[in-house]
Amino acid sequence: MIYFDHNASTPVDERVLDAMLPFLTTFHGNPSSLYRHGRLVRSAIDIAREQIATLISASPSEVLFTSGGTEANNLALNSLPPSGKLAISSIEHPSVSDFAKYQVTKGSILHKIEVDSSGVIPLYTIENLLHLKPDLVSIMLANNETGVIQNISQFTKILKYNNIAIHTDAIQAVGKINVSFEQLGVDLLTLSSHKIYGPKGCGALIYKKEQALTPLMLGGNQEKYIRPGTENVPAIVGFGKAAELATIELEQRNNYLESLRVKLESELIKIPNISIFSREAQRLPNTVQFGIAGIDGEMLLMHLDKNGIAVSSGSACKSGTEEISPVLKAMRVAPEIAKSAIRISLGMNNTVSELDHFIDKLKSHINHN
What we know:
Elements: E1 2-3, H1 14-20, H2 36-55, E2 63-66, H3 69-77, E3 85-89, H4 94-105, E4 109-113, H5 123-129, E5 136-138, H6 152-161, E6 165-169, H7 181-184, E7 188-192, E8 203-207, H8 233-268, E9 274-276, E10 287-292, H9 297-306, E11 309-310, H10 326-330, H11 335-338, E12 342-345, H12 352-367
Parallel strand pairs: 1-11, 3-4, 3-5, 5-6, 6-7
Antiparallel strand pairs: 2-8, 7-8, 9-10, 10-12
Helix pairs in contact: 1-8, 2-8, 3-4, 8-12
């Protein structure tokens, strides 16, 4: 199978699996236990915390482990004070946008930040937020569908000057581009293990110590009482190893993925009636989303699947619905083009020959429709 859906999930790196295995077998103790076996496991968690902090230029004390990116995003937005004002971009992942809607049911006020036709948030929309005086603003660093990167550090300067807290979902960005918690200047930042060749079921919320957090669960003192429950030690260790590898290999990954993306787009633009979304915007090195007039995206996806090629129509958390992507809708993409949307998200195991095979099968489907 040719796998072109790395924004949905990446395969576990063999080096990550090797790091995890002892904690699935030999080192099985509870990290909260005081005896030596438990202390050894606790030490492994501490090392993973340091590895993740190094990847994003944070302090280990600012790293809080969760069950994944969705929980981390939920926890970040749960820091909103009762009946508070929340502003999110119109292109957020469902783990942000759906929780924001839930906050409204509890009395919060929600404001959507618009994007332009390229999926970029104009600076003036951030400046226009100031009169609303939101308590929290949540803007993703890089979009999971289009790959568009937002200028978070510029937004933060404006918002922090006005004492507004800011959260960024950096799940898609980390491991592909340089991400610094310190330089971004945000109060809250979310990560996910399985987007950087680590295991599923593990994520992290990075938070400044002065940022108040409200737990989603109760019943234990783990993770400073903010995220109780016995830690998923093998996954945390794997996440840490994946973060270490991402730190070491970041430049290599960025360059290789961008070379593949440039090659792919050079072939795509030769196809009549194709629209590559956000092509002129700054994007992740691995992500291409496009639509073709007159082509049904779901039928194309199924055709490619029958030919052993796995692609996506957008966010995996919204797959199976017939709705137009909220991201493309926010970008004001024509419905007939939005319905044809296909996302290619490349990974380190992909090759130029796989791209050539994909282009061949894509043209074959177009020519028969």
